[in-house]
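Tokens help. One example:
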Amino acid sequence: MTDFTAAGTFTLGRRSVNRMGYGAMQLAGPGVFGPPKDRAAALAVLREAVASGVDHIDTSDFYGPHVTNALIREALHPYPDDLVIVTKVGAVRGADGSWNPALTPAELERAVHDNLRNLGLDVLDVANFRVMGHGVSEGSIEAPFTALAELQRRGLIRHLGISNATSAQVAQARGIAEVVCVQNLYNLAQRGDDALVDSLAGAGIAYVPFFPLGGFTPLQSSILSEVAGEIGATPMQVALAWLLRRAPNVLLIPGTSSVAHLRENLAAAGLALPAEVRSKLDAIGKTEE
């Protein structure tokens, strides 16, 4: 089994979790819509992740929709005591697979109840408010985040986070309720959140990069490939290892629908990156290939 101790742990809400987690988005069908191509394989990936030591799983009821949460429940319920399941609200899917904002108090409450029901939970560990839009969208999130804070006060959510947010929106959310995590686009080549990562580290707030491997267009870099060859790892393992060493508050949730790929991702938790290697990798986000 993969040894997670090299990557360490960080606090997520009231729990201390391993810094290498798992994201369930890729378990749904193409375009994160519809059922998985291989249901048995999807269930096997989830079980392998938890058996290997993963105690932080990221999901949402709008993945599918309802697909990944149903898979998580089938594979893992009743859940291990140390498993933290983080979900997202703020969107619904259209019949054509479109992603549509769902921001009213009634829509957010419905989303919370959908997640609770489909995961088989009485309370959500962490619910992230997903700011909708292509890329990060400016604008006030006061109304929807206040509605989520009310659901937290009612005991339906333990902790709140925010996703796809600007620094100003993170600050606004923190003025409304405690924020335990920020989930934004960030990876070796896309480093726009550098300052936010550091400020959150100082505040003890987890930073969870989505698309840590580039998402639907995987990271491509001659430097990354060269470094990976030098240290006997895959480029994606190196990209994950770099993120773990970027800051102590970074929690990773790489996703996959393959057990073999899952094991490769988890192995990155113990991958050593010498100082000269890190210097080469740091330069990727500052130059154009």
Q: What stands out?
A: The first strand starts at residue 9 and ends at 12. The chain has a mean pLDDT of 93.
